[in-house]
């Protein structure tokens, strides 16, 4: 990894945190699209990392990423949901899109990101937000498949950014590497067989004679059966030598819920977030019970689902704004989803 950064940037990265690697026997490992890209209906909740940003410039098998002291801002949340294209108002602008990821911050700042998902790759096509929007005229390749441990894919991209009355065009080259697998220690638990991916891209502004060059480095950690990065840290390196790190950590309740229900179970909730009404999508052969739980475990709502239909209507209108777990007991199996109740203003 070191050869990809200048000595100055390498020094900066090494100051972010300490990293420890234990060498062991190499073993064949592979990343597929199901490891890193969640199916429609999946939901995740992330918190912003406050100060010490986990970072690892080493790679290989049997790595130990030891981050039990990672602190997050419990107020600065980010709700992620994989929504159908039909729920995205700007889907017609991206005819090649197969998937949309909706991000909603604690301040109800909503961004829809559009992706083309093919058997051999995932490419970002653009995003629409209330302040900034991006439109790739040459899409950014995020992943290629299958990837073996140590594989690197390089590509080019170009993107228009639009916001605040100004438009800029950036082009650059990028790479993505599946560079590590091992054990990840987080504040709420230790997880094995975690896959580590590094993404790097350089942006050259083409719309001005003295266009800036910015380097973006991103590291992601993927747990088994959680097809969304449980930990993600991004660092922007600017031409003037300054740098800006930020990151997200998935909260422990989300990790527990997703791994408990294994994302392959056949039901989902829409819309997320909701101002009150929501629909459970799924057909069940026998009796089924749905419970709404507060994050402290209290049951704040309970309903029986009628067999013979795949649309079940409910409402959280009477509940205060916030995050809730929806627990389903159906066909002898228990699984959990997450909903976010927000105001309708």
In quaternary terms, these chains amount to single chain
CA-atom Rg in angstroms: 21 Å
How many separate structural domains?
2
Structural class comes to mainly beta
Strand order, main sheet: write it out: 3-5-6-7-8-9-11-12-13-14-15-16
Number of E strands: 23
Helical content (DSSP H or I, runs of 4+): under 10%
Straight-line distance between termini: 48 Å
Shape: globular
Could you describe the largest sheet, including whether it forms a barrel? 12 strands, antiparallel, barrel
Strand content: over 45%
Which ranges are low-confidence, i.e. pLDDT below 50, for 5 or more consecutive residues? Answer: 1-28
Question: Helix count?
Answer: 3
Mean pLDDT: 82
Q: H/E element string?
A: HEEHEEEEEEEEEEEEEEHEEEEEEE
Summarize it:
The protein is mostly beta strands. The chain has helices spanning 7-16, 33-36, 252-261; strands at residues 20-21, 30-31, 43-49, 60-66, 72-83, 99-105, 110-118, 121-128, 133-144, 147-148, 152-163, 166-186, 189-205, 213-222, 231-237, 243-250, 268-270, 277-281, 288-294, 299-305, 311-315, 322-330, 333-341.
What does this structure look like?
The protein is mostly beta strands and 345 residues long. It is built from 3 helices and 23 strands. The strands form 4 sheets. A 12-stranded antiparallel β-barrel has the order 3-5-6-7-8-9-11-12-13-14-15-16. A 4-stranded antiparallel sheet has the order 20-19-22-23. A 3-stranded antiparallel sheet has the order 17-18-21, with no helix packed on it. Strand 11 (152-163) and strand 12 form a beta hairpin. Residues 1-28 have low confidence and may be disordered.
């Amino acid at each position: 990894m070191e050869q990809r950064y200048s000595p100055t940037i390498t020094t900066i990265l090494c100051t972010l945190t300490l990293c420890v690697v234990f060498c062991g026997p190499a073993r064949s490992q592979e990343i597929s699209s199901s490891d890193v890209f969640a199916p429609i209906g999946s939901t995740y909740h992330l918190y912003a990392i406050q100060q010490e940003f986990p970072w690892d410039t080493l790679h290989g098998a049997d790595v130990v990423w030891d981050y039990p002291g990672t602190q997050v801002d419990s107020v600065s949340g980010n709700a992620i949901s994989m929504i159908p294209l039909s729920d995205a108002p700007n889907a017609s602008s991206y005819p090649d899109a197969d998937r949309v990821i909706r991000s909603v911050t604690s301040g109800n700042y909503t961004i829809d990101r559009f992706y083309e998902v093919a058997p051999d790759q995932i490419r970002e096509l653009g995003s629409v937000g209330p302040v900034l929007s991006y439109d790739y005229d040459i899409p950014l390749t995020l992943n290629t498949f299958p990837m073996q441990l140590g594989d690197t894919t390089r590509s080019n991209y170009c993107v228009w950014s639009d916001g605040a009355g100004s438009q800029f065009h950036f082009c650059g080259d990028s790479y993505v590497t599946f560079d590590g697998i091992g054990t990840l220690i987080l504040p709420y638990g230790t997880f094995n067989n975690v896959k580590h991916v590094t993404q790097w891209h350089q942006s050259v502004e083409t719309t001005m004679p003295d266009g800036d060059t910015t380097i973006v480095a991103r590291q992601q950690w993927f747990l088994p059966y959680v097809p969304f990065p449980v930990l993600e840290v991004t660092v922007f390196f600017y031409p003037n030598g300054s740098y800006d790190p930020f990151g997200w950590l998935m909260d422990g309740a989300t990790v527990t819920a997703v791994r408990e229900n294994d994302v392959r179970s056949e039901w989902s909730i829409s819309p997320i977030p909701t101002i009150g009404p929501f629909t459970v999508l799924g057909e069940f052969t026998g009796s089924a019970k749905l419970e709404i739980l507060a994050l402290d475990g209290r049951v704040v709502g309970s309903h029986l689902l009628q067999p013979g239909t795949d649309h079940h209507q409910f409402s959280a209108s009477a509940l205060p704004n916030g995050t809730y777990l929806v627990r389903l007991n159906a066909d002898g199996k228990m699984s959990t989803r997450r909903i976010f109740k927000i105001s309708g203003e």
